[in-house]
Amino acid sequence: MSAATEPRAVPTRVVVAALIRKDLRLELRTRESVPAMLLFSVSTFVLFHFGLDARSLEGDLAAGVLWVTLLFASVLAINRLFVAEREEGGFDGFLLAPVDRTALFLAKATVLFSFLVVLELAAVPAFAVLLLAPPGLPGLLELCALLLLADVGIAVVGTLVGALAVQTRARDLIVPLLALPLMIPVVIAAARGTAPLWLEAGAEPMPGRWPAILGLYDLVFGLLAYAVFDYLLDE
Amino acid sequence: MPPAESPTSTGARPGGWAAAGAAGEPAPAVELRDLSRAYGERVALAGVTLTLPRGATLAVFGANGAGKTTLLRILATLLSPHAGTARVLGCELPRDGWAVRGRVGLLAHEPLLYRELSGRENLRFHARLHGVGAARVEALLEAVGMTRRADEPLRTLSRGMAQRIAICRAVLHSPELLLLDEPLANLDPGAAGAVEPLIGAGSGAARVLISHDVEHGLEEADVVLGLRGGRQALLARAGELDAAALRELYA
Questions:
Q1: Residues of chain A positioned with their CB less than 8 A from the CB of B131
Q2: Beta strand B223-228 with B83-88: parallel, antiparallel or unpaired?
Q3: Whole-number Å distance between alpha carbons of A224 and A221
Q4: In this structure, are strands B223-228 and B57-61 parallel, antiparallel, or unpaired?
Q5: Backbone phi and psi for residue A96, each to the nearest 5 degrees, phi listed first
Q6: Are A120 and A147 in contact (CB under 8 A)?
Q7: What is the pLDDT averaged over residues B100-106?
Q8: What is the four-CA torsion angle of B73, B74, B80, B82, rounded to 10 degrees?
Q9: Using a CB-CB distance cutoff of 8 angstroms, which residues of chain B are in contact with residue A93?
Q10: What are the backbone angles phi and psi of residue A125, rounded to the nearest 5°?
Q11: Angle B134-143/B159-171 helices, nearest 10 degrees?
Q12: Which long-range contacts (CB under 8 A, 24 or more apart) does A53-56 make?
């Protein structure tokens, strides 16, 4: 084979699928991330339930409690997102393959997104039962849309921060220090968008600007993370 | 097979820089010229110059911290040189690193495998990254005698068994250049014999072999590189050296 020979390029979608399958399999075996996130969230809701000395929450306060809790829970998964790659040689194994390096970003962001969705499937109903004043989950469709948009933003920024932090010795400190400030727009938009759905007097329509802001955030940080991720894998 | 450049005896460096890939000939497997690399202030590798033809074996000797692993990681495109030139399979590093990946097989100290996945799952994962079919995975597991234990999590296997799986990973994509760091570590004689066709001279690939077993390394090598404190202390044809000269590197 000469120098001009092209490497056997593997399609990015195949690489992303292989990485996702591997990560989900590892999570099913180790149960390190999702159970921890769920336990943290439910414990926090229980503490709020008793600590606020309020029988139930509504409006801004309910939305704030939910989104801050979900955000802190996401930090647990971000902390562990690249640990297997770092500690078991996954980075080297990946970098030795003739693949587009951004496949790792796409796969990790998708995995983190799926962890968040699984978490919310259990944590949001638990929140409604433990803390929410209006019975059930009013405005469920709008809430789901907002959750998905926020999850994309958390997954994108979380993947970027996780890849950066895992190269450092102070990973557990770096992740919250970097991720939480970067995710402030997500909390603001998601909480403001959710609050009208949970008014004690009855649900009001969600202002369209909050989902739009979340969508814009996802787009901007998605492009930014996609552009810089390759450099994070260098040495 | 002799080196393309005629290396001089202990302590000297080859004088010329062989032209890569003369017309009609494949470029050498490895061409290094004054290759250097540092970690902060500490120089890990300095002024390494050599040429390794296709199909030949370079044995690298040196005490701990001599720069052997750094050299291997540069050739694998996992580290960039800080000075000098490194060409692997005719591609200049790090510029053409993308063209080298997938043509090099690295067997490092660490197996580069996930402990919670089975050997088969690990190999199938890496096979997908390299665009290799599952049949190749099964053939390799069979070749190293690991078919029966292939579905057990890696963490439950002995070091020797994990090493056999790691060897399968390194050769999964039939690399043209094998980078082997103590490949027979933890292997019993039977297992060492089983992996010989995959990583031995008969594999057909050029090889860069790190070994502390001086006799075995000399036996395997066409060219010998000795490193001391990151510097090239010795470069010679294997036939020109005896084990005693190499042991001085460890003194």
A1: 8-10, 14, 98
A2: unpaired
A3: 5
A4: parallel
A5: -80, -10
A6: yes
A7: 93
A8: 120
A9: 112-113, 126, 129, 169
A10: -60, -40
A11: 140
A12: A56/A131, A56/A132, A56/A133
Separation CA A68–CA A74 (nearest Å): 10
pLDDT > 90: percent of chain A: 66
ipTM of the complex: 0.88
Please give the model's pTM, rounded to 2 decimal places. Answer: 0.88
Residue tagged 């800080």 (tokens)? B82
Please state whether beta strands B104-107 and B177-181 pair in parallel, antiparallel, or not at all (unpaired): parallel
Closest chain A CA to residue B114: A88
Partner-chain contact A98 B116, CB within 8 Å: no
Please report residues of B whose CB lies closer than 8 A to that of A22. 114, 117, 121, 125
Burial grade of A227 (CB within 10 A; 0-12, 13-18, 19 or more)? exposed
Q: What percent of chain A has pLDDT over 70?
A: 95
* Lowest-pLDDT choice from A143-152, A202-211, B182-191, B228-237: A202-211
| Whole-number Å distance between alpha carbons of B225 and A26 | 41
Contact B91, B26 (CB under 8 A): no
- What is the rounded distance in angstroms from the CA atom of residue B142 to the CA atom of residue B124? 14
Q: From B30, which residue of chain A is nearest by alpha-carbon distance?
A: A3
What pairing do the DSSP bridges indicate for beta strands B42-52 and B30-39?
Answer: antiparallel
Radius of gyration of chain B (CA): 18
Q: Is A31 left (phi over 0), alpha (psi -120 to 50) or beta?
A: left
Q: Which DSSP state fits B182?
A: S
The Cβ of residue B221 has, within 10 Å, a number of other Cβ atoms equal to: 25
* Pairs of CB atoms within 8 A across A/B: 110
Answer for the pair B61, B107: CB distance below 8 angstroms, yes or no.
no
- Provide the residue type at B159 as one letter: R
- Give the tens place of pLDDT for each residue, B198-233: 999 889 899 999 988 888 888 889 999 999 999 998
pLDDT in tens, A13-49: 999 999 999 999 999 999 999 999 999 999 999 999 8
Say how far apart CA B39 and CA B20 lie, in whole Å.
Answer: 29
B115-170 pLDDT tens trace: 999 999 999 999 999 999 999 999 999 999 999 999 999 999 999 999 999 999 99
Residue A74 to residue A155: CA distance in whole angstroms: 9
Distance CA A118, CA A96 (A): 32
At B166-178, the pLDDT tens digits run 999 999 999 999 9
Q: Report the pLDDT value the prediction gives residue A54, as an integer from 0 to 100.
A: 65
